[in-house]
């Protein structure tokens, strides 16, 4: 990924926080016919390494797990807050007109070898962990054990798991760092005026510069 120095995010806790807050990843692998992508939730776990390991699962019917080029690392892309930035927000638009719109965003790329897993115990533990994470905010959290055991076993037969030990981790925060303070304040005001969840999330990132 092209990352200008001003947009580079190297703090591992910050990068990990984005992955955990936006866990739906685009998992890209090389196949015999070219690049292949699936869109799946992934869980980040500590494994004693610098960057951690990503875990997930896909349908057994999905050919991605069957057709991997093992000597080419997989890529998991996590997209965080993003928003259109209007040129009309910049004071310069009204002073000299030499402004153009842009798009702000935060994104993480995680690279590593992909290991396919078929073991039922691993799959069950993974599904329980994934469910517990995303049910935590529910008033009455659903658990895998709420479903009949025979039903869950049948579902396990229809998926395969994977682990992606992260060997390279890139973070790009394009959040108006290239603008002066006056322009950044104008961007914050423009995003605040929209008052949407998306605009306020981006506003928060711009304010942290």
UniProtKB/TrEMBL annotation:
Domain of life: Bacteria
Stored SUPFAM superfamilies: FMN-binding split barrel
InterPro entries from the UniProt entry: Split_barrel_FMN-bd (IPR012349), TR_PAI2-type (IPR007396)
Pfam families associated with the record: FMN_bind_2
Name this polypeptide is given: FMN-binding negative transcriptional regulator
Organism in which the protein naturally occurs: Granulicella mallensis (strain ATCC BAA-1857 / DSM 23137 / MP5ACTX8)
């Amino acid at each position: 990924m092209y990352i200008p120095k001003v947009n580079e995010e190297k703090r591992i806790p910050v990068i990990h926080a984005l992955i955990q807050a936006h866990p739906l990843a685009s998992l890209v692998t090389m196949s015999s016919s070219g690049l292949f992508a699936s869109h799946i939730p992934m869980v980040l776990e500590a494994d004693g390494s610098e960057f951690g390991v990503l875990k997930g699962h896909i349908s057994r019917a999905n050919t991605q797990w069957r057709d991997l080029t093992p000597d080419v690392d997989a890529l998991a892309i996590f997209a965080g807050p993003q928003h259109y930035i209007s040129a009309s927000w910049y004071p310069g638009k009204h002073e000299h007109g030499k402004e153009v719109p842009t798009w702000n965003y935060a994104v993480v790329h995680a690279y590593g070898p992909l290991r396919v897993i078929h073991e039922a115990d691993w799959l069950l533990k993974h599904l329980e962990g994934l469910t517990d994470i995303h049910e935590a905010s529910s008033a009455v959290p659903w658990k895998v054990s709420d479903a009949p055991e025979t039903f869950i076993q049948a579902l396990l037969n229809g998926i395969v798991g994977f682990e992606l030990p992260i060997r390279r981790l890139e973070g790009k925060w394009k959040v108006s760092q290239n603008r002066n303070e006056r322009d950044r304040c104008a961007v914050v005001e423009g995003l605040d005026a929209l008052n949407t969840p998306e605009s306020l999330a981006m506003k928060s990132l711009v304010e942290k510069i």
